[in-house]
Fold:
Amino acid sequence: MRILVTGSAGHLGEALVRVLGSEGFEVVGLDALDSPHTTVVGTIADRDCARRSVAGVDAIVHAATLHKPHVGSHDRQAFVDTNVTGTLNLLEEAVEAGVGRFVFTSTTSAFGRALTPPPGAPAAWITEDVAAVPRNVYGVTKMAAEDMCDLVHRDHGLPCLILRTSRFFPEGDDRDDVRAAYDDLNLKVNELLYRRVDIEDVVSAHRLALERAPEIGFGRYIVTATTPFTRDDLAELRADAPAVVRRRVPAYEAVYDARGWTMFPSIERVYDNARAREELGWAPRYDFRHALERLEAGEDPRSALAIAIGAKGYHAVSTGPYTVR
Structure:
């Protein structure tokens, strides 16, 4: 199978090119930046570039995007050009070229304001059925791109699966107060409880989506580490998260105490990955319990793939912790 991976110079794009190539697939990497994993340097906003890149491929994994960190450095038109027009270019050229499957990398950020319940309310339980209320142009354009996938599938039958990934980037949090309050690894292990996923698990979800797309046709899936929480925990999570973690994963306290780490006092939302596990057959490995086991053994809780790729930053971002260095 010949697979086009867009965004091949980015965190996920590089991971996909590495893994798919190692499995024997012929991979074409497309990115606006040159890199060891990029075959074609160009932008998906350019229809001719999209057409040339799609020619002769059997499948597309579309990971290229302007991200949330670009909100402060790019105007809204740039987001529309890349995230909406670029996705439309790929979809229409895929139909024209007879491509057999299309996997689109979206984001849990698209849920936007639905992720923040009002004061005093329980934490939000986030499934694919929660109505998105985007809070910025990033969320708006990712939702528009998702709907474009749905439209092209309905009109032309192109199998399209959408993966809404939670946090997998290795850079520090973009909030100064959070970076000051928590050791970086402490913060990221905390997030595995409800809003983070290791990049190796993200890649395995994309790999399964490629396999299952023709059979499923169209679907949206949350891709995040499996939470130990249930809906019954939501009220207490908002009021006293450490008590819930203590009950669900008792081993956490000893591991955290040994490192001087702290748990978040409150958790306001929990992503549920059940649909991806059930319909894609996805079995993510790098969850909170796995991280505790690795830490207790004196090992890095991240996957080897996450360590190999490391922090890349986000190109053309001029300020903040995500700036390419």
